[in-house]
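Lecture 7 notes: from sequence to structure.

We start with a single chain of 255 residues. Read the sequence below before looking at the structure.
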Amino acid sequence: MPLKRVIAKLDSGPGRMNLDMLAHLRIRGLYIVPDLLNTTSKTHETNQNCGPFKGDYQNNLHLLASERFKKKKSINVNDLPLLVFGGEDPETGLKLTDAFNNSFSKENCLSAWHKCGAVPLNRSPMNDTTTRHKLVVNADQTVNSIINPHGSKLLQLELLNHSACDFLTSLGYDGTRLHISSPRRGAKKYDVTQPQSKKRIKLLRKAKTAGELLAVTHGKHLNSSDFFKAWAMDDRMKLSDAMLKDKRLALSDRN
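Now the structure, written as tokens:
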């Protein structure tokens, strides 16, 4: 529809980097947003439904296999609809549960979207107590509480751990076995480059993984004009090198 946009949240698979696809989608108002890496259990809505679905499906498979075995009958690919959607098995009379609709019902989907912060849109995955955090450190080794507000808490836990281990060591025990430090990451890793800047285009050209691309633009790379410029610059550099090589060959032939 005119003046409307659609956001599609995807994982960071290699197929998401196809330039022709991204340009085609962008022209039509479809914006691709790559999901944060290694956050499947917290931010992928459908994964919340897949767990219960797999459990019901495997239970159906176990029950059906047992009943078929008793009657010396086997299971084949034609039994897939029965295992997924449930119903009565004509071979044994066994009634199986509807694994699909039990797991992907409207209520369960809304619950999964709410849990992942999609409907309504919020930061609930970031506030989940089971989310793993890292201590973000500035260049002067101070804690950056802006990038990660949980950093001060992690540092406090680390100091308490070190103090307890030192106390055990003073009593003659090997306190180093319980000694642990908070996972750290430099604040520079999370610096967001300015749009339309040479620095951003240069870093995008150097990025080889989805994580490096996310660090440069915080997830905006797939819809960024700079992303297309970086790839275009690479193509032009290759073309320029090829033309220069041909020129040198032509000059050498003349000589």
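The longest helix spans residues 225-254. Keep this in mind for problem set 3.
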